[in-house]
Please model this.
Amino acid sequence: MRQTLSVVLATFNEEENLVSCLDSIKNLADEIIVVDGESSDNTVKIAKSYGAIVKTTSNKQNFHINKQMAIDMATKDWILQLDADERVSKELKEDIEKVLSFKNEIVGYWMPRKNWFLGRFLKKGGQYPDYTLRFYKRGKGKLPQKDVHEQAIIEGEVGYLKGDLLHHPYKNFKIYLVKWNRYNSLRATQIKEELSRKSMIYKFMFGIGYLFIKPLDWFLVSYIRHKGFMDLWSGFVFSLFSSLRFPISYIKYLSL
Model:
């Protein structure tokens, strides 16, 4: 007997992305759960048109809090946690169906993710396969809710799927900069907490690392060692701004 699947999402003003996301899981999800952060567009209306169970709450800076709320609301055997700007590829859909068709000891699965950036899916720069842990048995996975790039913590054995999760996070560079700035602001608050009880010498060395050492190291590793240059202009811009997040978040911390 086929096991059942809950697809869970946390949303905020995602009307431009949500239709494609939910279309990609048609005939796969037995239940759709959406926790919405008080969207001002048609996000909730679209979600309900797909039969989703929708809960409205505040839009939190760390959106993993709302994601965990959606996970906690799920009632089916397995959970697939998606972002509205992600699509389940045909191959990934087939992989998930295979898992649901039989029972084994594995309680969670990593899946490779392709990230779309400035006109192409990034294949180099350490960006593919960008494995993410999004598919697990209900009650076996939980988000720490501490960092924007965290993975679920799974209780039990995990495996790997082959099909790609397709990620379209930025419609244009302006949207990328908005999200990039938001992440840097969150990191600044985390830095403040980390350094609150540290010595002046530790804080000084931390600052040197974030202002000079980390950005240079990250750029050289992603663009040269991991061949980000093979993704042409997209690869250069991604490596550059990924590197700049360190000094920018530190400068934001100083402003706090």
Q: What stands out?
A: The mean pLDDT is 96. The chain has seven helices and 13 strands. The chain has two domains: 5-167, 173-255. The CA atoms of residues 229 and 236 lie 6 Å apart.
